[in-house]
């Protein structure tokens, strides 16, 4: 019998968010639970928060978890905006043990990949044709690239060099806040980043997401690039939804 509900947890540099998900509609069931990302964000400290969120939700089924990292076969190979102790950590085994579940009941994914999978499935159908790049603007910049709806996992296009800098160091949403940039000032940086990226991969569509997508009317209309840009329909919940679907269906990269 196909699962109708799932549970996803999205680990970010500033917050860890989890919620029950209606897998038929791609929508959260009730409110999401959010706890600040611990400092330092070591694997053990983050696992404790993931266990707390799962317990608060009263969920005892499979759990999908996203990390801001390259994740291959459940192992983290990078650590963007989380503690470097994550590098080389078998996250599958860590969370399975901490949650009291089998390894097969935990699905680990890169955070942007999870968000992109949700958008491809439940978002605008135009995203399922051609080359689509989803970009999440938050503490850093996450990327997910799809060819006719099929994911190319673990792209790290938030870290391409733009004008001598790692792109996310200049254009992440967190930089807008830390440097107190206006939306037009920040949009100029995002525009520069997207113009470099579109000349590298020539996408047919950009989807922009992350927490700042809730204020998309303040900056997306200011973008002036060749590639069409749409806003993530699931906004900042896409990672949770994608993780829940991955766990229910046993998807992992």
From TrEMBL:
Its EC number is 2.7.1.63. One of its GO terms (molecular function) is polyphosphate-glucose phosphotransferase activity. Keywords: Transferase. It holds the Pfam family ROK. It comes from the Bacteria. CDD domains: ASKHA_NBD_ROK_PPGK. Belongs to the ROK (NagC/XylR) family. NCBIfam families: PolPhglucPhase. This is Polyphosphate--glucose phosphotransferase. It comes from Amycolatopsis speibonae. The lineage of its organism: Bacteria, Bacillati, Actinomycetota, Actinomycetes, Pseudonocardiales.
């Amino acid at each position: 019998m196909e699962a109708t509900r799932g549970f996803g947890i999205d680990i970010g540099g500033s917050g860890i968010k989890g919620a029950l998900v209606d897998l038929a509609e791609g929508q959260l069931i009730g409110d999401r639970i959010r706890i600040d990302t611990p400092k330092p964000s070591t694997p053990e400290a983050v696992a404790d928060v993931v266990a707390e969120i799962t317990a608060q939700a009263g969920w005892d089924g499979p759990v999908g978890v996203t990390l801001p990292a390259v994740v291959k076969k459940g192992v983290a190979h990078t650590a963007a905006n989380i503690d470097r102790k994550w590098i080389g950590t078998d996250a599958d085994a860590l969370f399975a043990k901490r949650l009291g579940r089998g390894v097969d009941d935990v699905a680990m994914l890169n955070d942007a990949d999870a968000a992109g999978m949700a958008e491809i499935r439940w978002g605008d159908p135009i995203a399922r044709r051609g080359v689509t790049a989803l970009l999440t603007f938050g503490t850093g910049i996450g990327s997910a690239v799809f060819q006719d709806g099929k994911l190319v996992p673990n792209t790290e296009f938030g870290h391409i060099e733009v004008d001598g800098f790692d792109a996310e160091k200049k254009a992440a949403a967190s930089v807008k806040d830390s440097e107190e940039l206006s939306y037009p000032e920040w949009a100029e940086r995002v525009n520069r980043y997207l113009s470099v990226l579109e000349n590298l991969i020539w996408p047919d569509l950009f989807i922009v997401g992350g927490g700042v997508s809730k204020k998309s009317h303040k900056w997306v209309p200011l973008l002036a690039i060749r590639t069409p840009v749409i806003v993530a329909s699931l906004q900042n919940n896409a990672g949770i939804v994608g993780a829940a679907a991955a766990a229910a269906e046993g998807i992992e990269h």
